Amino acid sequence: MSQSNWRLMPQPPEKAVRQLTSQLNINQLTATIVAQKGYTTPEAAFGYLQPTITQLHDPMLLHDMDKAFERLTEAAFGGEKIVVYGDYDLDGVTSTAVMVEALEVLGADVTAYIPNRFTDGYGPNVAAYQRLIAEGAQVIVTVDNGVSGHEAVAMAMRAGVDVIITDHHELAPTLPEAYAIVHPRHPDGHYPFADLSGVGVAFKLAQALLTDAQPVTEKSELPTELLDLVALGEIADMVSLTDENRTLVSWGLKQISDSPRPGIAALLKNAGQVADQPINSETVSFKIAPRLNAVGRLGDAKLALDLLVSQDDDTAVNLATQVEAINAQRQEIVEEVFGAAKQIALSDKYHDDQVLVIAGENWHRGILGIVASRLVELMQKPVIVLSQVDGVYKGSGRSYGNFDLYTLMGQYRDLYDTFGGHASALGLAITPAHLTSLQNQIKQLQPLNIAEKEVNVNMMLSAETMTTASYDALTLLEPFGTDNPQPVFGVQEPKIAKAATMGTTNQHIKLTLANHVEAVGFNHPEWASVVAHPQNISFAATLGMNYFRGQKKLQLLLADMTMPQVTDNNTHKKFFADVYKFIYANQDLNFAQNLDKIAKQLQITKTDLNIMVQVFIELGFVHVVDGGFVKVVPNAPQKALTMSTTYLKFLANR
Residue limits of the DDH domain (predicted)? Predict the structure, then answer.
């Protein structure tokens, strides 16, 4: 490992940093990061650090907003039956909640419909629309979907039911013939900000409805009671946290912190959130979003909607308990499918594939995207994971680094039943026969330009300068997320007092620095060899805070770790390190049954592999259990390889 994939960002002019420091009363570290983000004048920096309603755009600038406003106002005051048709992920669920609550304020006769991932699929569904119309729907409002629903929308419009589409997804050359299409990137529109999420677009419609389409001049005029929902959906959908999204999310997080809805409060309690712990984008990304998304992944997302709109504490606690149980089930399923998919990914058949297309039987379709993401981290290449359902393989793909997986896989459109997505993520359906053809064509690809993932480092710091005060100063830059990343700092060879692994399979690592600050790396078993020799290590990390048993403690989160390059005369030590890392990463792999395959993958002989495992056993680093599984001994004492008799014999025979 080296720092070749680190990109040290340009340092801003000292004059600009001094000006920001003095005029905005912020410290030098914060001022430097702000200037690096492009806010080099006090006015621009203040607007970034203190987002206000003046940064929100007029909702009437959105395409067809005037038509949507007039039709929904007419329907609400005329007693027509309105159905809000949402989506099963958190952006879709929060979009639904925002639209329903806004229409209820107007006194509308409104109900919500969340499609089921497995029976309805994504977006407008003809059969679902027919049922809704048969039940009396007179206006259908789509949120976080609709621009790909030509057939269902046309059917509804022919039946005399007006369909108003609010969406943010990619626009096809031909759009549905809807009553109105509200979309920030509509080709005939002129909206000044293109990156609203589904809930962001829904909120702009709610803003128009609840302010009577008048520009907002005061905070009291804005429907701020909906901004907590907006923050959840926008963070979960990973939209750009710039421009008005930054305002919407900042205010929404503050609302959750000051007066959380009963459902959100119950979720946070189940997630272990403590009283003095701040509510930020990380809270949503790691505590709230996975739980609510789990509901739609495994079943009916209406439970998530019911929880978010609940006004009763007891009901919210009951619903949150159900959500927690579903999330626990989701975690178990992910581990089971990931284990099976990993065995396939590591097999000889896929060893030389530049893009992995892995298929299984009866894997739960709702979690394939999560499994693909984890395999990408493990294999360091793009991965597509599919499961056969009713004779067709369906699944999700995730890219690696900046590689455009969507464009590559789009070359094989003639093989797919369905295909969609964007550069970094996609979904597809394919028959078994076509899957075989796809996998064969993937194997014949010319070398692809899949670069190692870059780590943007804001600046190099000493470990001693990374303090609680530094963390507190950087919270001014929240909320962090897409296009507003958390600052990353490089630390060159700090003194490490202790190194240990964590987790059920020792997949996490914890370094205790000489100044007692801890640095943790999650789901990086390949770093585990550092435990035996934690010297001359450099790393890149973000600053975080650990809240445990009533104590608040600075904690660094490792983004990358590097070790000195191995010299030629120590090549054998590199082989030992590679084998050690492989063992850490694959403790659920039976070595006895797969010795030939493992040796081939590591490009060493089977004899040498056996010797290396025996050396680790002698040194107390590993032990063999259950007829061939090699398990790492947690926190084994550091020992030199030369303390092993087998290792000395190995050297003598070289």
Answer: 81-233
